[in-house]
Amino acid sequence: MSVRENKTDVIVVGAGPAGISCAITLARAGKEVVLIERGMFAGSKNMFGGAIYTSAVKEIFPNFETEAPLERRTIEHNFAILGENDSTTITYRKDYNVSYSVIRGKFDRWCAQEAKKAGVYLVDETVVRGLIKEDDKIIGVKTELEEYYADIVVLADGVNSLLAKEIGLRKDIDTKDVALSVKEVIKLDKETINQRYGLKDNQGAIVEIFGGPMLGMLGLGFMYTNVDSVTIGLGITLNELVENNYRPFELLDKLKQHPSVAPFIEGGTLKEYSAHLIPEGGYKKIPQLCDNGVMIVGDAGMLVNNLHWEGTNLAMISGKLAGETAIDALNKKDFSKKTLSAYEKKLKKSFVMKDMYTYRDLMDVMHIRKKAFLSYYMKKINAFFEMFTSVDGVPKKEHYQKFIKSIFTDRGIVELFKDAWAIVKLLWSILL
Ligand SMILES: Cc1cc2nc3c(=O)[nH]c(=O)nc-3n(C[C@H](O)[C@H](O)[C@H](O)COP(=O)(O)OP(=O)(O)OC[C@H]3O[C@@H](n4cnc5c(N)ncnc54)[C@H](O)[C@@H]3O)c2cc1C
């Protein structure tokens, strides 16, 4: 600490990927940074699917592939559409190193230890209760016991950022803009996992699941392989759960019992159960990300690319860019909104905001046409493959004609036109 008691250059609230990346960037540049985490240790409160992405992690921890506690290197992505008792799966397999499955309790803890080695002052088991404002500027944070002061405060407190709400940068979350996710970690021995998923050594697989118990709802299921466990879960927007009076763990039970899913987890024992929110609002729900003396990073800024299941990479890069902006501001001794807005400009130039912008219309389209895209066409894909693989003495041409006719009769020409138009509009906004 310098200048006055409890005063430092930067306070970062939340030791998830965003907060740690921001703090370590500052510490490596010789700045004083205090990282405050409410959990017993970094990662203890955090859960995800999940996979971390090599390119982003390397920017913060260049040697992580040999030093960090990783589970498996992803070599297979499966996209499975579940019907009532059937499924269609597309598999992409390549021996590359785009992502690794990790257990956040271990991985975040390792990242925090690296941050400490770089000079970050980590305060854990401490909840930030509020922000301290003087005139128009954030000048510190209040914890249960103390007040800490800083030139800049970075909010990395996750999806439900109460602190961003307190200073008016975020509104109450609309239930349409977050998904509630539940997941189980199921213990299985390594050999069984390798056999069931067709893997060897530390190779891993990801299964993204559409339909099944989530049919017609804005929700997805997932399975990830760890060294000696499989993570299975699902996330559904909160408004769907409330409107339909669904209990997420009941939907997860149904998913686990689906005939195309059950064999992958059969015989396993439940190791862990957890729940967490995921930002789902997309580009249009990103709040203002800075003000005098304060910046917002990661989930707190709703920076999640939900189509690609990317969150940790956006969190890490936003944290790094906020850290770099804070370094410049400290060098200039100017902590105004104008100076800190360089962070938003850096984000806009990076893949983070470019990707968020690319999918800016996705959620609107999905909310309006979910019954079509997340129910009707899902069922139709399975129906097509059932027809295509049937051998029943009926000429193939008759099967095709019946199948195509059924689309026109079930869906109707007007709805088909609206579906096609929605796809064209969406592709237009994605590609142009
Ligand atoms: C089910 C699920 C699956 C996912 N799968 C993937 C995936 O496969 N790949 C991927 O890249 N992303 C995935 N994500 C998203 C990813 O987990 C998040 O985008 C990422 O964790 C965001 O990092 P963050 O640092 O912004 O927030 P978090 O990881 O949420 O960290 C916030 C931290 O702040 C702390 N905190 C909160 N409030 C306070 C306070 N007042 N005082 C002190 N500390 C506080 C919390 O304890 C926590 O440690 C998934 C998310 C979920 C829920």
Give structural attributes.
single chain; 432 residues; alpha/beta; FAD/NAD(P)-binding domain; D-Amino Acid Oxidase, Chain A, domain 2; 9-stranded mixed β-sheet; 8-stranded mixed β-sheet; 41% helix; 26% strand; globular; binds flavin-adenine dinucleotide
Total helices: the number is: 16
* Broad shape: globular
Structural category is alpha/beta
User: What is the CATH first-level class name of the largest domain?
Assistant: Alpha Beta
Query: For the CA atoms, what is the radius of gyration?
Result: 23 Å
**Total domains:** 3
Strand content: 25-35%
Q: Which quaternary structure do these chains form? A: single chain
Largest sheet: 9 strands, mixed
Helicity, in percent? Answer: 40-55%
| Uncertain residue ranges | none
Average pLDDT taken over every residue: 96
Task: Please give the structural blueprint.
Layout: E1 7-13, H1 17-28, E2 33-36, E3 51-53, H2 54-60, H3 64-67, E4 72-82, E5 87-93, E6 99-101, H4 104-117, E7 121-123, E8 128-134, E9 137-143, E10 147-155, H5 162-166, E11 178-187, H6 190-197, E12 203-211, E13 219-225, E14 229-237, H7 238-244, H8 248-257, H9 262-265, E15 269-279, E16 290-291, E17 294-296, H10 312-332, H11 337-340, H12 342-349, H13 351-358, H14 362-389, H15 396-411, H16 413-431
Parallel strand pairs: 1-2, 1-10, 2-7, 4-12, 10-17
Antiparallel strand pairs: 3-6, 4-5, 4-6, 8-9, 9-10, 11-14, 11-15, 12-13, 13-14, 16-17
Helix pairs in contact: 1-4, 1-10, 2-10, 10-12, 14-15
The protein binds flavin-adenine dinucleotide.
